[in-house]
């Protein structure tokens, strides 16, 4: 295998981005290991093993040595579906019993339990008992006995931390929170601060529990998506339904979905009409009536009547799986801000460690200061040196935003897209299928020499059997009308169609062709021109040298298109329509919506237009994800409209599942709120560090305050990021 073996594991116990960095750096040092990717929210480790290099067992040994739980790998295959490792068994059984207080890492079986039932919770309780016991001994036996009790409590509690620190040191990572904790605790014992050292170990354990709880809260948004699809389905075999696992369904099988049940797979209705509540998938709150031939999503709720559905996609490819996979992969597309902070954190910890050494050495050696006092202050600085809060400040916000958006049908492929979306100043829309429904409708029937109803009846007869969009619009308008038989139908290349109906030859064509045939009078031409100036396409029905009537059609704007444009303008954005339509049609649509426009544009023209707009600021391009692919890629952010189609989910930077134009403004609001949240987090993390750095050097705060500043900042940053899960971008 020259290209190497692609491997994947489920990793448990990661609470922050620092955990991911630790694993990524340690595993990346192994020979033959490349393309290492670690996602905290998805709890995944992916990498490529080159032939002759390190093997899977060596990778597993490194990860478990750092104290993380490892679930079963996926071998060389890259699964399409996203499987949350909620019940992943351990490949190794030597990683949790001694995890203690470093970064204590939970067993997957701990999920769903109260904090006190988890490995971290039990260890925090154990250190609390040690501390309480030491205080009890101190009260009963004042003097040396009490001191030694605190020494014992500290050493027992810090032993697992030290073990993990040495493991990281052997893997080339000297600056970890475990190493700083070990130095601070042992150093405190040497200067006689045994009671405070034991308290610091306990507070560290409590902080780890809080970090774990907060991280699991952040993951709940993704887990909720996975739980939308029911575990079982009623497989319909000749009218005898039997229960099967939903993930075993294959395309072509039929399932029975009863009222109130969730739909177990993406599929197509073959029997029954019912209201479908798609809010779990797209966030659309109003149920839609669906009938035979119409598609449905896995996870949607059947609200009214029994349906028989033909499965069209396997579990790994259904809409929910693709959304979760997109959210997981999006975590790997890190924002520029996150990459900067990651680089910053790599020299932050060594810098603080060096500063702590100076605080310990300079005052006693240069100024005659007291050694115990300055060692104590230096140790307090060490505990401030962990950059966990800073490192997690960006990915926690990004993960919350991705989960929040996914619940509402707003999908963005990572932090880089969110950051770019927050900076856009212009929005370019494709017209057909984006601002409009992409399906023309008959808007006007004008009687010239025949009544309107007769014009429609004869025109529909001529168009019967045609697949042209305009012909289909006329036939939809004539639904329920008894049509006469048409014979001898023939297409007039690029101009229209004719057929013999009720003994006379009738033609439907453009006003220009009708005029060339002498069938359209000056008065009829004026009527046609007025309709065209309103942005409508006009067809003339004529026969026997005379026009019988006019039919006007238009691809109507979506109901929320005008509101969407208003919302974008309220956000300070400039909307523009880029369309291949003629200028009159484009001008009419643009005038009704209040946007600028550029007409008669080929795909390459749209590409040039996006480049020109990008020169004036960030630009978002919104299209259908197919015809506008070049422009979508050229824009700072390309957004595809589409109800969960593969193209919509995979070609653009972002996708709008509900086909609501107002969701474009909602996406930008969510992106801006996320960047605001990130700025708050960075300010909070750095601000607390700066304050306690100064107070520690001045002796105003001690060791236990320093550890609270570290773990407390991490918890505060995570909780602040979780606020995005409740943010409603539709309201702003």
What's this, in brief?
The protein is of the alpha+beta class and 732 residues long. A hairpin with a 2-residue loop joins β20 (537-543) and β21. The protein has 24 helices and 26 strands.
**CATH architecture tag of the domain at 410-437 and 557-657:** 3-Layer(aba) Sandwich
Q: List low-confidence stretches.
A: 74-109
User: How much is the radius of gyration in Å?
Assistant: 33 Å
Numbering strands along the chain, what is their spatial order in the largest sheet? Answer: 14-26-25-24-15-22-23
Largest sheet: 7 strands, mixed
Q: What structural category arises from helix and sheet content? A: alpha+beta
Could you say what the CATH topology of the domain at 410-437 and 557-657 is called? Rossmann fold
Number of strands: 26
N-end to C-end Cα span: 52 Å
Helix content: 40-55%
Question: How many helix segments?
Answer: 24
Q: Looking at this structure, what is the CATH superfamily of the domain at 410-437 and 557-657?
A: HAD superfamily/HAD-like
According to CATH, what is the class of the domain at 410-437 and 557-657? Alpha Beta
What spatial form do the alpha-carbon principal axes imply? elongated
Q: Approximately how much beta-strand content do the residues carry?
A: 15-25%
Averaging pLDDT over every residue, what do you get? 80
């Amino acid at each position: 295998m020259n290209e190497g073996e692609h491997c994947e594991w489920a990793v448990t116990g990661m609470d922050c981005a620092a955990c991911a960095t630790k694993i990524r750096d340690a595993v990346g040092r192994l020979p033959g290991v490349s393309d290492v990717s670690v996602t905290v929210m998805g709890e995944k480790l992916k990498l490529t093993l080159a032939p002759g290099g390190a093997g899977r067992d060596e990778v597993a040994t490194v990860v478990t040595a750092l104290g993380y739980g490892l679930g079963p790998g996926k071998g060389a295959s890259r699964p399409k579906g996203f499987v949350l490792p909620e019940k992943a068994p351990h490949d190794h059984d030597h990683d949790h019993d001694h995890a203690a207080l470093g970064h204590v890492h939970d067993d997957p079986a701990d999920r769903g339990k109260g904090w006190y039932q988890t490995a971290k919770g039990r260890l925090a309780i154990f250190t609390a008992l040690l501390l309480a016991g030491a205080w009890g001994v101190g009260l009963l036996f004042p003097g040396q006995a009490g001191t030694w009790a605190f020494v014992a409590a500290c050493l027992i509690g810090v032993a697992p931390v030290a073990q993990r620190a040495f493991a990281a040191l052997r893997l080339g990572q000297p600056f970890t929170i475990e190493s700083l904790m070990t130095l601070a605790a042992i150093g405190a014992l040497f200067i006689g601060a045994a009671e405070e050292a034991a308290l610091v170990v306990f507070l560290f354990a409590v902080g780890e529990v809080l970090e774990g709880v907060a991280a699991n809260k952040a993951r709940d948004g993704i887990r909720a998506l996975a739980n939308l699809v029911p575990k079982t389905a009623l497989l319909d075999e000749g009218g005898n339904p039997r229960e099967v696992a939903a993930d075993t369904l294959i395309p072509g099988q039929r399932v029975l979905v009863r009222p109130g049940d969730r739909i177990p797979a993406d599929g197509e209705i073959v029997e029954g009409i019912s209201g479908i509540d798609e809010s779990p998938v797209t966030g659309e709150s109003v149920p839609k009536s669906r009938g035979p031939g119409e598609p449905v999503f896995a996870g949607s709720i059947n609200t009214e009547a029994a349906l028989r559905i033909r499965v069209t996609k396997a579990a790994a490819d259904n809409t929910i799986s693709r959304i979760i996979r997109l959210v997981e992969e999006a975590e790997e597309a890190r924002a520029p801000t996150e990459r900067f902070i990651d680089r910053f954190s790599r020299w932050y910890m060594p810098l603080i460690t060096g500063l702590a050494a100076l605080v310990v050495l300079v005052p006693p050696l240069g100024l005659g200061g007291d050694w115990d006092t300055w060692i104590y202050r230096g140790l307090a600085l060490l505990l401030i040196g962990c950059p966990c809060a800073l490192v997690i400040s960006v990915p926690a916000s990004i993960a919350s935003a991705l989960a929040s958006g996914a619940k509402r049908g707003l999908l963005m492929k990572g932090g880089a897209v969110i950051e770019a979306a927050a900076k856009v100043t212009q929005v370019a829309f494709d017209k057909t299928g984006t601002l409009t429904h992409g399906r023309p409708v008959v808007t006007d029937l004008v009687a010239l020499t025949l009544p309107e109803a007769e014009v429609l009846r004869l025109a529909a007869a001529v168009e019967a059997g045609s697949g042209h969009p305009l012909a289909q619009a006329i036939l939809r308008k004539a639904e329920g009308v008894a049509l006469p038989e048409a014979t001898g139908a023939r297409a007039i290349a690029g101009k229209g169609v004719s057929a013999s109906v009720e003994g006379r030859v009738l033609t439907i064509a453009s006003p220009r062709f009708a005029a060339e045939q002498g069938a359209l009078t000056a008065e009829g031409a004026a009527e046609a021109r007025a309709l065209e100036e309103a942005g409508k396409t006009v067809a003339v029905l004529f026969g026997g040298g005379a026009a019988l009537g006019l039919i006007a059609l238009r691809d109507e704007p979506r109901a929320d298109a005008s509101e969407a444009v208003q919302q974008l303008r309220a956000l300070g954005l400039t909307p523009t329509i880029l369309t291949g339509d003629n200028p009159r049609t484009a001008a009419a649509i643009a005038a009704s919506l209040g946007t600028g426009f550029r007409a008669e544009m080929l795909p390459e023209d749209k590409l040039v237009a996006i480049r020109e707009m990008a020169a004036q600021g960030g630009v978002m391009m919104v299209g259908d994800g197919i015809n506008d692919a070049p422009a979508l890629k050229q824009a700072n952010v390309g957004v595809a409209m589409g109800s969960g189609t593969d193209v919509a989910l995979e070609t653009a930077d972002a996708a709008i599942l509900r086909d609501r134009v107002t969701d474009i403004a909602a996406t930008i609001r969510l992106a801006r709120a996320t960047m605001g949240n990130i700025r708050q987090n960075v300010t909070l993390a750095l601000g607390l560090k700066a304050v306690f750095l100064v107070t520690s050097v001045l002796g105003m705060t001690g060791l236990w305050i320093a550890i609270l500043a570290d773990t407390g900042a991490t918890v505060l940053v995570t909780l602040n990021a979780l606020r995005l899960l409740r943010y409603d971008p539709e309201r702003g």
